[in-house]
Amino acid sequence: MIIVIIGAQWGDEGKGKVVDLLADRFDIVSRYQGGHNAGHSVYVQEKAFVLRLLPSGIIHPDKTCVLGNGMVIDPKAFFEEVDQIKEQGIEVTPERLKVSSRAHLIMPYHRALDHTSEERLGNEKIGTTLRGIGPAYEDKAGRRGIRVSDALSSEVLRMRIERNLEEANRIIVLFGQPPLYADQIYDEIAPLVERLRPFVTETSHFLAEARKSNKKILLEGAQATLLDVDHGTYPYVTSSNPTAGGASVGAGIPPHHITGVLGIVRTYATRVGEGPFPTEMLEDEETTANLIRERGNEYGSVTKRPRRCGWFDAVATRYAAELNGFDSIALTKLDVLDTLDEIKVCVGYEVDGRRIHTFPAVSHDLRKIKPVYESLEGWKADTIGTTEFKDLPELAQRYVRFLSDQIGVEIGLISTGPERDQTIILKDSVMEGWFK
Ligand code: GDP
Ligand code: IMO
Ligand code: MG
How far is the CA of 41 from the CAs of 18, 20, 24, 59, 297, in angstroms? Predict the structure, then answer.
């Protein structure tokens, strides 16, 4: 069985919590795109973990974790995270952590280029995490990237650094930044690559063999559908494909071997960084936005930036369901809305007084959208930690059913708090089947 977990909105839907919860029933957890721009928080009793590069399954000592070929890996960030996780009492060995030989490396000049690119864009900046993600993917598509397997040869590593740096420095210097030096970069990266060597694996083959021996594999998406470089709110996106198709490419798994796709959806929406956000709570709804931000702890787990908050957008989520083919949805953060009198849901988009039925391709058009809202009565009661659907207040049940009807996909899991056991699994759902 192979299940993909995908964020349906603009990220931070609670993928980490759900992956951690599901990981118990799986043997392998693999990331397939992105890098340490992700921040997946997992709470287990008193311990808080923030996974950036490592799959959230790493917390379970008996699971094997994979960093797939579709990822971009900063070797320094990799070992910082490995060391941090070890400090938190988790054993991390090459036996249980495999890094694809085909993944690309994020180099120090990628970070510098991320900065210059944002600076160059000025008011139009993307608001990236400045981790070098975009420039590393640019090099990959430009066929000059350095793959993990290339870096294992010191001559190739040195040669590629020298060649790529020549080009990168031209831009870096143009923006008034000091040039970087190939020797320094080599001296920093080469020992890290050497330390990485035992983890390096032909991961697609590893996953294929695992599947053949009936191992259960969970593919953990980072970022989300509306940040997908093809399908998201371009250019305000990340540079990879978090959507379901990306899982096949980025883990090296045939599409027809994927058993199911689980969408992670928050009961409201957030966005970090720039870009259109039709249901954003603006000045007139600042109080509600602040309340949600505080109750939901909506601050970036990587950059600590306050997340922009907005109402649930059914148009955008239907679009995500269509693109990914969600078989089931995990609805997170129900408890965050516990104190609201009124909860709005965007059920349609209007542009210049006309209703539109598809998600616009152009970010400029998205900014002109007037959301059409339906207003639902808040339940004004505590749902935190609820584990049975029947124990939810009637109005909360109504809200969940309303969202499911709007998206057109079952809700198989409801999250009522950050902890593992603060979860409702819906009986007879597709999701429940995966849990068995
Ligand atoms: P991810 O990037 O999709 O993994 O999400 P993040 O970890 O960046 O952000 C989600 C945050 O919400 C984390 O701090 C989670 O611990 C927390 N969280 C997840 N599910 C719930 C929930 O149902 N209720 C509450 N209150 N917090 C949750
Ligand atoms: P998780 O996996 C939310 C956003 C950035 C920026 C855009 C491009 O925790 O959901 P990048 O550094 O990737 O080039 O930035 O994408 N972004 C995220 N937003 N959650 C994430 O990951 C994100 N990863 C990138 O804020 O707007
Ligand atoms: Mg996150």
Answer: 10, 9, 16, 11, 11
Q: Is 335 in the pocket of ligand 1 (CB under 6 A)?
A: yes
Contact by Cβ (8 Å): 106, 128: no
- Active-site annotation holds for 338: no
Burial of 294 (0-12, 13-18, 19+ CB in 10 A): exposed
Report residue 386 as tokens: 């609820």
Q: Say what angle helices 108-121 and 182-196 make with each other, to 10 degrees.
A: 120
Calculate how far, in angstroms, residue 296's C-alpha sits from the geometric centre of ligand 1: 8
Whether residue 147 is predicted with pLDDT greater than 90 in this model: the reply is yes
Catalytic residue among 20, 36, 40, 335: 40
Assess whether the C-beta atom of 131 lies below 6 angstroms from ligand 2: yes
Query: What is the pTM assigned to this prediction?
Result: 0.97
Which two structure tokens, joined as six digits, stand for 244? 């379901």
- For the question of residue 284 being annotated catalytic, the response is no
Q: Of the ligands numbered here, which is closest to the C-alpha atom of 50? A: 1
66 pLDDT above the threshold of 80: yes
Task: Name all domains of the chain by residue range, CATH numbers in brackets.
Answer: 1-101+202-436 (3.90.170.10), 104-196 (1.10.300.10)
**Is the beta carbon of 145 within 6 A of some atom in ligand 2?**
no
Whole-angstrom distance, CA of residue 157 vs CA of residue 155: 5
